[in-house]
């Protein structure tokens, strides 16, 4: 049997799926492929009533019971990182494998490389803990689905065996409602979607004056600039229909001159989910030329790459209408793959083939 772990949370008697749209989409795709869900629940009320350590111990016990259902010849899909960091999961996976079960790890994030290294001793202890979790859990996978080849190279340095790794290439982005593509104008504003908190995406507050931008997301501090237009925040699927503009921008950090700091460095191996959001809408993209997804953009011809945001204006001004239409057509072609779950299906099928061919 093929199983997948579906993490859920209870909060004030309300049960909700834990995590983001990316996780929920993969759960849905896996289930359509015949994977059977195993629930792992986290009860916030227990944390409030009995304390964090008691709740964490209960969660670890629940993980142990969940994984005990996976027997000889079975496979379990786990999306990483695990919610709420239960203790002892790598050891549980080792026991599962000793009794003949197989583990597929699908990576969303590698948390420790995004954490600030210059903090208090307590913070450094937390980083060390997360690094241990990342290394020990990911390496337990009989198949490991990484974002792209650059992340695979990073994982190789962590000790993950090359022959166990599979490249997802890009996250899917399921859309469940009827969806009509909008014909776009390359002279419309460039779209910035996502978390707009100043401490997280400082570059948003220094966007160049020579280009119009439409912003979508939470926590924007409007400073009244004429060329920066805040539209609002929408749920993930509604956003695909609400975005108006010529290109979707994939950028991170404090400055428009480069993608800097921990978040900028992370872009060198990461597939941002907003990249899939834009393309699922049939929207061409603009990405940092050192980002991992720049390879995908260039190969599939779905947008342009720049070294700094100030280059966008001239890049669009010098672009022919036919070039833009080609990017738009290619983005729509990729969109049809993303909204149908094509990339995840292929990666999971490869992972199942891989683990079925492994000898204990």
Characterize this entry briefly.
The protein is 39% helix and 18% strand. It has helices at residues 21-32, 44-50, 52-67, 89-98, 121-138, 149-158, 236-242, 261-266, 273-280, 293-300, 312-317, 321-338, 342-356, and strands at residues 2-11, 14-17, 36-43, 75-80, 102-107, 143-146, 165-167, 190-193, 213-216, 228-232, 248-250, 285-288, 303-306. The two termini are 17 Å apart.
Report the principal-axis shape. Answer: globular
Q: How many structural units, i.e. domains?
A: 2
| CATH hierarchy class name of the largest domain | Alpha Beta
CA-CA gap between termini: 17 Å
Largest sheet: 7 strands, mixed
| CATH structural architecture of the largest domain | 3-Layer(aba) Sandwich
**Fourth-level CATH superfamily of the largest domain:** Glycogen Phosphorylase B
Please state the structural category. Answer: alpha/beta
CATH topology of the largest domain: Rossmann fold
Order of helices and strands: EEHEHHEHEHEHEEEEHEHHEHEHHH
Number of strand elements: 13
Q: Which value, in Å, is the CA radius of gyration?
A: 21 Å
How many separate helices?
13
Uncertain stretches of 5 or more adjacent residues: 13-19
Overall average residue pLDDT? 92
Helix content: 25-40%
Q: Strand fraction band?
A: 15-25%
Describe the structure.
This protein is 39% helix and 18% strand. With 360 residues, it is an alpha/beta fold. The protein folds into two domains: 2-172 and 341-356, Glycogen Phosphorylase B (Rossmann fold, 3-Layer(aba) Sandwich); 190-338, 3-Layer(aba) Sandwich (Rossmann fold), CATH 3.40.50.2000. The strands form three sheets. Strands 1, 2, 3, 4, 5, 6 and 7 form a seven-stranded mixed β-sheet that branches. Strands 8-9-10 form a three-stranded parallel β-sheet, with no helix packed on it. The chain has a three-stranded parallel β-sheet with strand order 11-12-13. Helix 2 (44-50) packs across helix 3 and helix 3 packs parallel to helix 4 (89-98). Mean pLDDT is 92; it is low at 13-19.
